[in-house]
């Protein structure tokens, strides 16, 4: 039965990200291509909505982020930061692209921090990060 | 070779989608029960997953791709078809709970087992298995073919239609063969969400590329001014006594009603029953049918897909969805790719479930009981896996090598499925339907449906018998003709045959339903009102009353100023009927308590000792009888074609 709950939770998470992820990628691309910052903002909002949706699914199934999920999320954010930084340094990005990238990075990091702060309290949020790294990521 | 942006995004979304389905198929296979029960997942799937999977299967890519094209070609009378989600939901609300309860009581794992056990007739096992095979091979082949061609168009010729069709088939096969029915059901929920989002995306794209809702309606008003286009904005009467619907010059309300019945037939198919029996409990039936199917998908169909069709009508396009996606791909390939794979998800929701249901029907419900009763479960599962491969191969070969045959054969799947309705009504409600009446009625219904559709006409023509009618005579869909013959036969035979053979099982069900279905006094109070409302809705929404939509909300040909709601009157009528339909489904599901769960555990009846099979090993006598029957039928057809055919 535990495996059933795992599958159930996973399907719900994938359905959530399948929709919000596609919307986020689509609107971010649309905003950057058309140089329309409001469209990019819709994409950023969709990414944040996907994160919030993931939290709701977790709460509904009485789970927290698994190590794999947390690792994947951190890796995705790191990748976004890396690609954005390299692109910014290597070529002259248009204003809309720069603002889109910055907004996305800030929104993703802020969402993560707000989650930790609401779950563990502001002070504990920092110690959670330190504690995770100190204990090899185990909670 | 340089890839275009559209190709890159198709590859990117396709890769992510395949990775996700493969990952979850493997997770499902790793479950202990998943490996043991490849061909079914009885009582194992969460109710909410089944509710979503049923909705996705009911719509599939069939309606999503077909409805806009119907509207673009035949006009807003095709919008009446978008209301088919309400009859679908009404059917689900009226039968699903009782099917699930009866299945739990009798320990049934499939429609074949349920009906064969209740009616004590092996004929239902063959009927149900054959029907599931038709869905898995022909109905899936039609959608495969359309989606393959669409992928070729969207990739700008980067991939030819035939390899694209093979690729789509392989994508489905790869997760079905690993995860079995549990994976098909579980991923059905994911595919339902993706399909819903895809339809929303299609509607937004149509609205955006059409210049906004007001501009689209202004263009429609301009079209409506031309008397030559009048047929696009009105239903062309109640019924037309012509040889075939193709000669009618437009949709009549009789055609809309009978086609809605055909579309609702998917809810009576073996695939729907097997998904339903996979649910752990019956708690999500009411919500699934009311809010997911009738409200959410019904709204998307009657507004979103009709909007896509309206844009196709303005552009004089016969392929509304394809043209829209090609235009979208030119500017926003990421959205085009995402919507395309949402359509693929809709196709897979039906194809995956139907191929395993068919494999189960052929192996567990036909081969094992009739030909090899002592076959062990592991070998049966292995044969089931081989069956899945063979069925999918047949489907893709039909789609690529004989697309015309696939279309005419696939068109029979829904009207054939609708012929199971009276038998299911007998199981759920009408205990006076005798076993021979249900079986013979279904057989006569199938024959009538076949003979009033293009496939049956072509077969008759092949053997030299030229029937004096065309496809869908008197503008009534073959499902309607089949159901009329089915019900008439069933009534006559029920009147003249005793109920003896089903009596004990009917009594078991009577006792079960009486115990579980005792409704509150408040529910009894709304009963007559609800059924009156259902009849009134059927008359006005999909019945003869649909012609009121021609003029009730404005003059169809009078232009924008004459349209009371600023949109074509018939479309506005359909939207109003959809809203009333949702209220009706809610009333029947919740207030009448026809689909709400009683929250009681159902104990399976003791079906008695299975008994030792009379023959060990292969039942050669049965196999001989089958081979002689098939050879005889083949010889007869060949002789007739040789003597009378062209």
TrEMBL record, chain A:
Keywords: Membrane, Transmembrane, Transmembrane helix
Source taxon at top rank: Bacteria
Keyword Transmembrane assigned: yes
Membrane spanning residue stretches: 12-30, 36-58, 70-90, 96-117
The name this protein goes by in its record: Uncharacterized protein
Lineage: Bacteria, Pseudomonadati, Pseudomonadota, Alphaproteobacteria, Hyphomicrobiales
UniProtKB/TrEMBL annotation, chain B:
PROSITE patterns per record: NA_SOLUT_SYMP_3 (PS50283)
Nucleus listed as a keyword: no
One Gene Ontology term from the biological process aspect of the record: sodium ion transport
Catalyses which reaction(s): L-proline(in) + Na(+)(in) = L-proline(out) + Na(+)(out)
Record's keyword terms, sorted: Cell membrane, Ion transport, Membrane, Sodium, Sodium transport, Symport, Transmembrane, Transmembrane helix, Transport
Broad class of where this protein is predominantly found: membrane
Pfam families: SSF
Gene Ontology molecular function terms on file: symporter activity
Membrane-traversing stretches: 6-25, 45-65, 71-96, 124-146, 166-185, 192-216, 254-279, 291-315, 335-359, 380-399, 405-430, 437-459, 479-499, 529-550, 570-589, 625-644
Gene Ontology cellular component terms for the protein in this record: plasma membrane
Compartments, as annotated in UniProt: Cell membrane
Bilayer topology: Multi-pass membrane protein
Family: Belongs to the sodium:solute symporter (SSF) (TC 2.A.21) family.
Name listed for the protein in its UniProt record: SSS family solute:Na+ symporter
Organism from which the protein derives: Roseiarcus fermentans
């Amino acid at each position: 039965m535990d495996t059933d709950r795992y599958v159930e939770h996973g399907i719900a998470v994938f359905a959530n990200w399948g929709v919000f992820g596609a919307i986020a990628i689509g609107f971010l691309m649309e905003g950057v291509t058309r140089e329309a910052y409001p469209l990019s903002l819709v994409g950023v909002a969709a990414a944040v909505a996907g994160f919030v949706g993931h939290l709701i699914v977790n709460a509904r199934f009485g789970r927290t982020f698994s190590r794999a999920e947390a690792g994947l999320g951190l890796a995705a954010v790191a990748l976004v930061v890396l690609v954005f930084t390299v692109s910014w340094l290597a070529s002259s990005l248009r204003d809309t692209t720069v603002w889109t990238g910055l907004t996305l990075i800030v929104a993703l990091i802020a969402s993560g921090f707000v989650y930790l702060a609401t779950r563990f309290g502001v002070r504990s949020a920092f110690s959670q990060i330190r504690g995770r790294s100190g204990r090899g990521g185990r909670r | 070779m340089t890839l275009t942006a559209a190709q890159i995004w198709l590859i990117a979304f396709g890769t992510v989608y395949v990775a996700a389905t493969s990952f979850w198929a493997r997770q499902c296979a790793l479950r202990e029960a998943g490996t043991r029960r490849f061909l079914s997942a009885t009582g194992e799937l969460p109710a909410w997953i089944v509710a979503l999977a049923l909705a996705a299967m009911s719509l599939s890519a069939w309606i999503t791709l077909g409805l806009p094209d119907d509207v673009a070609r035949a006009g807003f009378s095709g919008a009446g078809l978008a209301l088919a989600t309400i009859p679908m939901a009404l059917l689900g609300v009226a039968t699903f709970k009782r099917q699930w309860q009866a299945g739990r009581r009798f320990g049934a794992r499939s429609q074949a087992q349920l009906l064969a056990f209740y009616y004590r007739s092996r004929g239902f096992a063959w009927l149900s298995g054959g029907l599931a095979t038709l869905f898995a091979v022909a109905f899936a082949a039609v959608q495969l073919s359309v989606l393959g061609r669409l992928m070729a168009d969207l990739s700008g010729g980067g991939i030819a239609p035939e390899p694209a069709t093979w690729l789509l088939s392989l994508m489905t096969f790869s997760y079905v063969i690993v995860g079995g029915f549990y994976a098909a059901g579980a991923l059905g929920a994911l595919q339902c969400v993706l399909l819903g989002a895809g339809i929303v995306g299609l509607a937004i794209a149509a609205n955006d590329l059409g210049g906004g809702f007001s501009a689209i309606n202004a263009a429609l008003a301009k079209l409506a001014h031309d008397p030559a286009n009048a047929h696009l904005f009105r239903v062309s009467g109640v019924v037309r006594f012509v040889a075939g619907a193709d000669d009618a010059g437009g949709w009549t309300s009789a055609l809309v009603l009978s086609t809605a019945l055909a579309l609702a037939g998917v809810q009576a198919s073996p695939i729907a029953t097997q998904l339903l029996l996979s649910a752990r409990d019956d708690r999500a039936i009411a919500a699934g049918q009311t809010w997911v199917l009738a409200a959410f998908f019904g709204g998307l169909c009657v507004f979103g897909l009709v909007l896509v069709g309206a844009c196709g009508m303005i552009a004089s396009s016969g392929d509304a969805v394809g043209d829209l996606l090609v235009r979208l791909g030119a500017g926003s390939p990421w959205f085009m790719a995402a919507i395309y794979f949402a359509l693929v998800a809709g196709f897979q929701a039906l194809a995956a479930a139907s191929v395993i249901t068919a494999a189960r029907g052929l192996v567990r419900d036909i081969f094992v009981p009739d030909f090899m009763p002592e076959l062990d479960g592991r070998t049966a599962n292995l044969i089931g896996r081989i069956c899945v491969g063979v069925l999918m191969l047949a489907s893709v070969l039909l789609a690529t090598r004989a697309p015309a045959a696939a279309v005419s054969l696939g068109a029979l799947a829904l009207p054939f499925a609708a012929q199971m309705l009276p038998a299911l009504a007998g199981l759920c409600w009408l205990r006076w339907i005798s076993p021979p009446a249900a079986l013979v009625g279904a057989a006569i219904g199938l024959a009538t449906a076949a003979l009033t559709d293009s496939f049956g006409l072509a077969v008759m023509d092949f053997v030299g018998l030229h029937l004096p009618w065309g496809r869908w005579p008197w503008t009534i869909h073959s499902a309607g003709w089949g159901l009329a013959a089915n019900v008439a036969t069933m009534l006559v035979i029920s009147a003249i045959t005793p109920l003896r053979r089903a009596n004990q099982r009917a009594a078991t069900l009577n006792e079960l339903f009486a115990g579980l279905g005792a409704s509150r006094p408040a529910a009894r109070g709304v009963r007559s009102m609800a059924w009156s409302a259902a009849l009134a809705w059927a008359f006005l929404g999909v019945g003869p009353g649909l012609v009121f939509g021609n003029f009730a909300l404005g003059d169809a040909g009078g232009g924008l100023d004459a349209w009371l709601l600023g949109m074509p009157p018939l479309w506005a009528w359909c939207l109003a009927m959809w809203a009333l339909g949702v209220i009706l489904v809610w009333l029947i599901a919740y207030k009448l308590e026809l689909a709400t769960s009683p929250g009681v555990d159902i104990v399976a009846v003791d079906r008695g000792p299975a008994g030792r099979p009379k023959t060990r090993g292969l039942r050669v006598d049965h196999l001989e009888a089958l081979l002689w029957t098939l050879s005889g039928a083949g010889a007869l057809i060949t002789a007739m074609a040789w003597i009378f055919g062209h």
